[in-house]
Design goal:
Blueprint lengths: L7 H6 L1 H10 L4 H10 L1 H22 L2 E6 L2 E7 L3 E9 L8 H9 L6 E9 L4 H10 L3 E3 L2 H10 L1
Antiparallel strand pairs: 1-2, 1-5, 2-3, 3-4
Helix pairs in contact: 3-4, 4-6
Protein name: Histidyl-tRNA synthetase
Keywords: Aminoacyl-tRNA synthetase, Ligase
GO molecular function, one term: aminoacyl-tRNA ligase activity
Length: 155
């Protein structure tokens, strides 16, 4: 498996798509029940293949990922040939994952305790795997509002 298996909830949400996936492989509902009961390793493989297909489709459309921890914010934009990262680091112990901490950051962007960094990095051989790695490390797929805001602010 290239990415990660979907959760039970995600499979339930994508039930129709999974049925269509099985149908493309000429697996009927009765055959699927038989596979699950008598060939669990084959069932596991089918779940993994479907999960990878779903992840591939999602990752192809991801343009922004953000990861926010108590004293740091990492914002990523996936350009055509590289990823652009903006990092905001606080050195005063304020927790920007709280409403009060985030409000403090917004009101004190030029404070000496706030540091802005940015970098560009080329993709590895697999652009989607690079995106997935950031998500696996706790990143969240977003529409890019924070990235756009901070990119305008510092550039």
């Amino acid at each position: 498996m290239k990415y990660a298996r979907l959760t039970k909830e995600q499979f339930e949400e994508l039930n129709k798509e999974f049925i269509n996936f099985l149908a493309t492989q000429s697996i009927t509902a009765d055959e699927w029940q038989d596979i699950k009961a008598n060939k669990p390793e084959v069932a596991e493989e089918e779940l993994d293949v479907f999960s990878d297909l779903v992840w591939e489709g999602v990752l192809k459309q991801v343009n922004y990922v953000e990861h926010i921890s108590p004293q740091q914010m990492h914002l990523f934009y996936f350009a055509e040939d590289h990823m652009h990262a903006i990092a905001i680091k606080l050195s005063n112990g304020i927790d920007i994952t709280t409403n009060a901490g985030y409000d403090w950051l917004r009101e004190n962007l030029m404070d000496d305790n706030v540091e802005f960094l940015q970098a560009k990095k080329d993709y590895s051989d697999d652009r989607n795997a690079d995106k997935f790695e950031l998500i696996k490390q706790g990143g969240t797929i977003t529409k890019g509002d924070l990235f756009t805001y901070f990119n305008k602010l510092i550039n």
